[in-house]
Amino acid sequence: MKTIDEFLISLSNQDVKLWLEGDRLCCDAPEEVLTSNLSTQLAERKAEIIAFLNQVDLAAKSRQTITPVARTENLPLSFAQQRLWFLDQMEPGNPLYNVPGAVRLQGFLDIAAFEQSFNEIVRRHEALRTTFKIVDGQPVQAIAPALKLALPILNWRQLEEEEKETEIQRLANDEAQQPFDLAQGPLIRITLVRLADTEYVALLTMHHIVSDAWSMGVLVRELSTLYEVFATGKSSTLPELPIQYADFAAWQRQWLQGEVLETQLSYWQKQLGGSLPVLQLPTDRPRPRVQTFRGAAYSFSLNSTLTEALKELSQQSEVTLFMTLLAAFKTLLYRYTFQEDILVGSPIANRNRTETESLIGFFINTLVLRTDLSGNPTFQELLGRVRQITWDAYDHQDLPFEKLVEELQPERDLSYSPLFQVKFMLDNVPKEDLKLTGLTLSFLDAKNLTAKLDLSLDMYETASGLAGAFEYNTDLFDEATIACMANHFCSLLSGIVDNPEQPISQFPLLTTVEQQQILFDWNNTQTEYPQDQCFPQLFEQQAEQTPNAVAVVFQDQQLTYHELNQRANSLAHYLQKLGVKPEFKVGLCVERSPEMIIGMLGILKAGGAYLPLDPTYPPARLAFMLSDSQVSILLTTQKLTDQLPQLPTQIICLDTDHNLLAEANQTNPDSKVTVNNLAYLIYTSGSTGTPKGVLVTHEGLVNLTQDKIRTCQVKASSRILQFFSFSFDASIPEIVMALGSGAALYLGTQNDLLPGQTLLEFLRQHAITHITLPPSALAVLPSTDLPALEMVLVGGEAPSPELISQWSQGRLFINAYGPTETTVNASMVECGNGKGLLPTVRPAANKQLYILDPNLQPVPIGVPGE
């Protein structure tokens, strides 16, 4: 950090003025007390700074004096005006750049003086008499020599009180949305509504092309002065303005060229040249292909204690409050997106010359503040980066944003605004109070219906503490999402003042209520299930209850529960003679057939754990799984033996050894297996590296069985499709929810299950009631052609809202998610049918699910994580 002397020496006259204005000290009011967000050291040197401001670089200041230009020639638009004019040409009548205001006046109102005051302001400020014409293909300012505003007065005294308030809000919103014609004008309008003899509401709207926030302060100040004199029959005492906005526009065009332009532009080209990152905030809806501007606003506030703590932190860190809040906002954006290169737009008044301070006009400029958040810095470290980038931007603030976009020519995407998608502003300039003799005034908040960007955060200093407002695009975000974002910002600020040396990844975002909901309430999933039984026992009970019900169907073959249980028992007894017992792993490599189910049940009944092996897998992958798992017994069929790797493994062919197996005992075996013993070993796909074998116990398998039957509403009359490869864990719930409920499990050949017409015919032919498919396979099926279908479960990919809507009509639609390690499904949530059209994740029965960011912090609702 520079000393004050070094700081003063290094800064230009313009920079010092900007620094002071940013901290509510005006050079023409040296008696004003410095606010606490200036460092103590800086405050002590106030007089020196003021002297510096008045003395340094006077020659340069003189060279840049703005002087009036002749009104005989065509007057150019400022760069900012030119952009708004161009946008209006592209979409005439768009109210996006309307600047509305509404005030309630209670007491005696001198209507004549009120109207006279506004017309005097219009006379004083050419900008309010300006329209925009095209001459020789170029827009020019057309200034009317005179303009008398009519003051329409609406009489609503006869309305009921409740009706008055409703109508005032409606009218205020309508006025804010009423477009202007830039070519015809006027670009200011005012309406007065009489609610009672001593109560009025005044609605004022101007187009941004002739006004800005500072201008509203000028208007309020002049209105207060003029009303006082006109109400007493006196003349205006306001001095005539030395220049007008058109003079500034002409000066800007002339001054911003050559070396001045090159100096400014070279910095921004270095800062923003090349391909820029687009901030990918998580949204509630897909982004429209063309950017929309429908919006709303959400307000919140910080208490005085937190406000003072933020000011104290700023003072100790030798930064402004703006820098602290900007660094916190960028931290919030980082935690929502985990992007480390973040660009935020920030408006500045651009009134850094004495001549422009008292003008009404469109002066405001926008700086693009780009910050590197890489390396997980502490907040103090990030604050240092923000401070430097902000100072550098202030040093090069004279290049209009419009000129910057023109020069950089960034790659355009119609769905995003150029250069940045979010904005931040801190307004800590004291508000001009509108004071009219004999009247009590209060400002009304018109409902904001537009948004220029995806998201904007405006902060304000008030007597009770900082207040904020998020302006957001309603085509992207719901109000509830923005309300959560505001709460997260407040939580973040509290964490920052408590420990600014903490890395930005570790600050709390979740509120106490959210923590309770996400960490505890949603994870309170305790559900009853048999905790002293293993899956073979569940199946045996079902076989005893419904022995003649069909259990498995494959082509022209079918097995009843009694037949399936007997054949599985024979295999189990045979395997026990070979030494299979709890924790003993047995390989199972068969094609889809009844033998696949017999083999699985036989191994489990023997007390062993099965390893499913898809015979279509490459030999090298099969060899790896057999070797890595160290299975010593492999069940297969004769036709597959030649395809299998040559390993020291005992092979049993379920087809050719059928007679041998049939001689074994067909009663239910006693395996001594417990719920804590291994039920199966299954290998992951290896898409992220070497495949790994996952061990799953009977406890997890039984819980999965019961949860699937309950959630998918499986009945004994259900017909369940077995779609997935036997080596893929999604096949397990298909099998167990059928055999654990008395339903029929339908197996198909590889050709039968090809997504499209072939699969459709299979589902119709067998009147399948329950299917589990990836969304991509479901998308190629017509939902209306499957009247028997009762339940659709998707997993592996996120289903689109359109797919959910299509397939949830009149049937159950479930979105499932889960890694293999969590016994297939960690989450199963119903969607559609009034349950929402977004794939939601909630923990399944007897499981806990936490969605974390890369730094293992819980993410807020809607924020991506893992």
What is the gyration radius calculated from CA atoms?
37 Å
Strand order of the biggest β-sheet: 4-5-6-1-11
Strand content: 15-25%
Q: Helical region count?
A: 27
According to DSSP, the number of beta strands is 27
Helix content: 25-40%
Distance between the termini: 40 Å
What would the principal axes of the Cα set say about the shape? elongated
Can you summarize the main beta sheet?
5 strands, mixed
Structural category is alpha/beta
Topology:
Layout: H1 4-10, H2 13-22, H3 40-44, H4 46-55, H5 58-63, H6 79-90, E1 98-107, H7 111-124, E2 130-135, E3 138-143, E4 153-155, H8 161-177, E5 188-196, E6 199-207, H9 213-231, H10 245-255, H11 258-272, E7 295-301, H12 304-316, H13 321-337, E8 341-348, E9 365-372, H14 379-395, H15 401-408, E10 422-427, E11 439-444, E12 455-462, E13 465-473, H16 479-498, H17 512-521, H18 535-545, E14 550-554, E15 557-560, H19 561-577, E16 585-588, H20 594-606, E17 609-612, H21 619-629, E18 633-636, E19 650-653, H22 658-662, E20 678-683, E21 693-697, H23 698-711, E22 719-722, H24 731-739, E23 744-747, H25 757-765, E24 770-773, H26 775-778, E25 791-794, H27 801-807, E26 812-817, E27 827-831
Parallel strand pairs: 4-5, 10-12, 14-23, 16-17, 16-18, 18-19, 22-23, 24-25, 25-26
Antiparallel strand pairs: 1-6, 1-11, 2-3, 5-6, 7-13, 8-9, 12-13, 14-15, 20-21, 26-27
Helix pairs in contact: 2-4, 7-9, 12-13, 13-14, 13-16, 18-19, 19-20, 23-24
